[in-house]
């Protein structure tokens, strides 16, 4: 009797705790090194991961694994890192003192916590006019606090959306840095833009995200992006020519192994990419040659030659 193989146990662990200190944070790519007081750990632990924004006092929930770094010792390497506002008075004061909210430093952090306790964020969100009850906070500073809080909330919502669709934190930060507040809209309308706009994200990754978002395998945005991907693959593999017949069938199999391919795939290939011959220049550089029977000027005016679909 043949025994079915047992699944390997996951090495991913979940770590939750309060950020005591942000040792390092790169604003460009989100890489961060944190010192956190985590549940189930007596001593403060080191967490390494990515976050669009991060501050002392925030609560983090991370999934990843423990590693032993030769230089820095044991640290938790997070693949997913989610942040949420602190709920304790001490955590709130630490968060506000960090400068994460414009217009608030250590002095005003103490004043706000003294005035509103653990309800500081609730006051900012629901009754912001009450901020002016605090000595020294006028209309300008109150408006600055309100705008900064809204910005932080938007960042959190975007990161939660990306995480919920299987995007790791490092990639999520790159997506946020590229699209900003439009990230959710871009992802929802056409996740294949990620492969075109963001370095390090290719068609396969964008396609996996699209499947999680519910994009149909036969959707035209998938077909078009798949053709571009297939052309690029063909160049990398050194193919000198890709005709409509071999493109429509062969590249369809490359895109999805021949299953769920829309009937229009071959026609789309012929209209978008199949009529191009791929030629290599001396030195190995690949480019698309002008289709037979066309001049250079004809080619540039060809309706089917769409720059957005070039490999």
Explain how this protein is built.
There is one protein chain. The chain has 311 residues and is α+β, with helices and mostly antiparallel strands. It folds into 4 domains: 13-84, OB fold (Dihydrolipoamide Acetyltransferase, E2P) (Beta Barrel), CATH 2.40.50; 89-159, Orthogonal Bundle (DNA polymerase, domain 1); 168-206, no CATH class; 220-309, no CATH class. The chain is 42% helix and 19% strand. The protein contains 12 helices and 7 strands. The protein has helices at 89-97, 106-116, 120-126, 139-164, 169-179, 183-189, 193-197, 203-212, 220-236, 244-256, 265-274, 296-301; strands at residues 13-25, 31-38, 45-50, 59-69, 73-84, 277-280, 286-289. The chain has a 5-stranded mixed beta barrel with strand order 1-2-3-5-4. The longest helix is centred in the middle third of the chain and has 26 residues, at 139-164. It is globular. 32% of the residues are buried.
